[in-house]
Amino acid sequence: MADKSFFIDTTKCTACRGCQVACKQWNKLPATKTFNWGSYQNPADLSFSTFKLVRFREVIREGKVKWYFFPDQCRHCLEPPCKDTADGYVEGAVIQDDATGAVIYTGKTRMLSSSAFQEVRESCPYNIPRQDPATGLVAKCTMCFDRISNGMEPACVKACPTGTMNFGNRADMLDMAKERVAALQKKGFKKAQLLDADSIRTVFLVVDDPMLYCKFAVAQNDVGISRKLALRKLMKPATGLITSVAKL
Amino acid sequence: MTNHWIDIGNSDCILIMGSNAAENHPISMKWVGKAMDNGATLLSVDPRFTRTSSKADFYTALRSGTDIAFLGGMINYIISNNLSHKEYLAYYTNASFILGKKYGFKDGLFSGYNNKTKSYDKSYWAFEKDKEGIPKRDHSLKNSRCVFQQLKKHFSRYDLKKVSAITGTPTADLEKVYKTYTASGEKGKAATIMYAMGWTQHTVGVQNIRAMAMIQLLLGNMGVAGGGVNALRGESNVQGSTDHCLLWHIWPGYLKTARASNVSLTAYNQKWTPTTNDPLSANWWGNYPKYSVSFLKSMFGENATPSNGFGYDWMPKVDDGKAYSWLDLFDAMYRGEFTGFFAWGQNPACSGANANKNREAFSRLDWMVNVNLFDNETGSFWKGPGMDPKKIKTEVFFLPCAASVEKEGSITNSGRWSQWRYKAADPPGDALPDGDIMIELMNKIRKLYQVEGGAFPEPILNLKWDYTTNGKYDSHKVAKEINGYFLADVTVKGKMYKAGTLVPSFAFLQADGTTSSGNWLYCQSYTEKGNMAARRSTQDKSGIGLYSEWSWCWPVNRRIIYNRASVDRYGKPWDKEHPVISWTGKGWSGDVPDGGWPPMLTADGKLNPKTKYPFIMKPSGHAHVFGPGRADGPFPEHYEPLECPIDKNLMSGQFINPTIKEFGTAADTRATCDPRYPIVASTYRVTDHWQTGVMTRWQPWLLETQPQLFCEMSHELAKLKGIKNGGKVIVESARGKVEAVAIVTIRFKPFMIAGTTIHQVGLPWCFGWVTPKDGGDSANLLTPSIGDPNTKIPETKAFMVNVRKA
């Protein structure tokens, strides 16, 4: 099995949330009790039971309303800082599949202490990991490892009606993504860009400033740049930078 | 849809107006996206900025209920700027027809109006005919009384400034939409419209669609790939249920429901079979008796004989001039005119306009049978808000039925494709497929009539009733009956067809009782070659995505209807890149043509006497730019909604549609230009819930994404009313009130209407009090039970409310 990646083309996303619900269905995740909080986005955030969440943001750009949708999920980093952090506490709590590159949280995450989990979460440049307060297990997108290991697409990709969610060999996904960026730039979307494409396996395409889509659309701390740096951070986790980012 | 979903990908310009395709028809955006990848422009026009708008190249807003003004402006723009497809307009439409002297239009009223009956004498709108009885024409379109010149005159009043004052759309935005869309008037270009209930649910609903159909004819966009008039149906099988006569005014295949005055089969056929004196008009409906008789044979089998008019007398008749639409039935129920009611696969306590009236009406019944998957606000109305169970006499029976995936059968999608579906699982518990419920019910009724007799037992006892296998409902037997059988050995065009075999297509149906067909439009769907709807070939020989061997579509598997207008008079496609059909010199290649006749002109430019005009369903063979069949006028005209925020119609002295009929019960209150209800409201749906939510509100994952009734409004209105985003509000109309969560958003903006600031809000109608308990109730508690004069579709897209902090 070759190195895998997602390509998420937000210009095609209609926020139907087929991906969000399909993720829950395949992974047998329960619904959480929600309330309308003045937004279509629900649940309000990722959680232990919500690995995939379409974020809704409305902004005015050059006098025109824009409604941006961001089907958020784990980026499956090439060099996952969450794994580096977790390895410092419980070996095997976070593993990375050699063939696909999928970053997977195992049952051993239960052994991470509350503060260790906080470190794992803070080390994630995209604010993805979530802990079940009842069991201590930490969870997030699995790349539908059970599906892709059996020749199937991830559930979110299978459910997507518009071509927003794509999955395949990394090289193919990057080619597709770059071709799409070129086409959009030609059409006049000067800010069409891929987000952190070189360091992650969930490559988003956006056409405006990434921060307008999601606070963590691009990496929001300097962990994850290199394994060495990540390890250094591990030694001294509560830097001012990380703390301030976590408060954002 | 005159075209189909995949065909949207062939378009050069897509207007989504009167629908919110991205949210309510998510898969459609796959094809919209494909068109855009190929360079198409997407335009979104909607009172609010939707998820559809978020994908559009250009978005602009209009006030709810002003679509005719908006589209009238586009018609004016096409004519003023000489942008129409001239050859198409002159030869394929009735733009060239000369109107009779009695036609006229003055101050919002067409000639022939009767103020007492609130209706028109349509004879005032007749065409002038020559001595052969054929409408006179002027193909130069210059005659001052030709349709085109009258159209020009009528819509010259819809100038940008006036349209803007009515719609609230800035003139620059109007021009931008008009210019972009009408570029498709160029030969070889196609633009399409995707509309839904945002257009139909108005007191001018039919004329909204008419206005767009006229634009498509002016631009030559009917019959071509990437064009057409495309209604996005609100349920997966609405098209199928309409084809098979869900509505009161039709029999299957759009045959007419018999009126009391149609005293015999002969009188019935004579009344509803159109005629033409023009030898070049195919007048397809001239075949009417073949379809009506084949239908009666299907209903009554061997009991239908020539001597008894094939059982015509056993068919129910409706009173002339009386309507039996949804609104009329609930009005009659409210007034106690009938006492029993089957609510089958529906939830009128939430889905019907003026839901309080419907809920009150239920309490006047003796009994109700609620056939559904889940408990709902209809079956449990007696314990609902404001009801005292002790005072309600209605006895309610609940029959659990199978879901769509728990039974086998066909569904017909918006693109008219009838697709066979297999059963995936058994229904739970005692739940039965609808077919089995009907079989059991009818078997019992027939037995009771056999044993006890009763008034007029013939229709019940003479019914052909053999749709079971081993005592169970057999969907294949029904599908075959719908297609139809030869009932005797019949020779057609020299070939003999054996009695008992399935009819190959409707061209073989007979008016003498030797064929049956439950629905002539579906004749060819299940033949001796097998179940056409079950075909699953992914080959596309057409190159334009017709996929002619995937499922089957009516009529006769024609994927794009009116396709003989996709070619010029020599039979050459207007659009060489996306040819739908093409004349080879001997016959047509491509899609199944609208009749196999040769093109209008021979290779040397002479009229071919063997040709037929392309719009074969019209007696004149020409598409209707001038539509004399509508209740409210041959041309669309802007009227204000029944409830509106301004005290006069800027177009004329006629305030509202002069042909609408209001109901008179105590529940039918209304408030127009009333300071108590100063805000325009509209209802709509969300992606996450299905219709009233009967199926989806029990689904935790869907409830998680959309948990509660909300009311969307602008920051400006919220500030005015002291409302905070996420806070609770009360929304009330002259008919009812609901509590909702406020979504304060930049996607709503106030309108400047004739110099006044007008606010608009919107609410989804997918919630109800049964579940979830904190989800709120139906937005239809607010809406008025007033209908379009042609269809009686209620005006739930434009009405007046007030909003206040809860």
Q: Care to describe what's here?
A:
- The complex is a heterodimer of chains A (248) and B (806).
- Chain A is an alpha+beta fold and 248 residues long.
- Chain A is 28% helix and 19% strand.
- Chain A has a domain of 88 residues: Alpha-Beta Plaits (2-Layer Sandwich).
- Chain A is built from eight helices and ten strands.
- In chain A, the strands form four sheets. In chain A, strands 8-1-10-9 form a four-stranded mixed sheet.
- In chain A, a hairpin with a 6-residue loop joins strand 4 and strand 5.
- The longest helix of chain A is centred in the C-terminal third of the chain and has 17 residues.
- Chain A is globular, with a radius of gyration of 18 Å.
- Helix content of chain B is 22%, strand content 15%.
- Chain B has 20 helices and 33 strands.
- Chain B has a six-stranded mixed sheet. A five-stranded parallel sheet of chain B has the order 3-2-1-8-9, sandwiched between helices.
- Chains A and B meet through helix 1, strand 2 and strand 3 of A and helix 2, helix 19 and strand 29 of B.
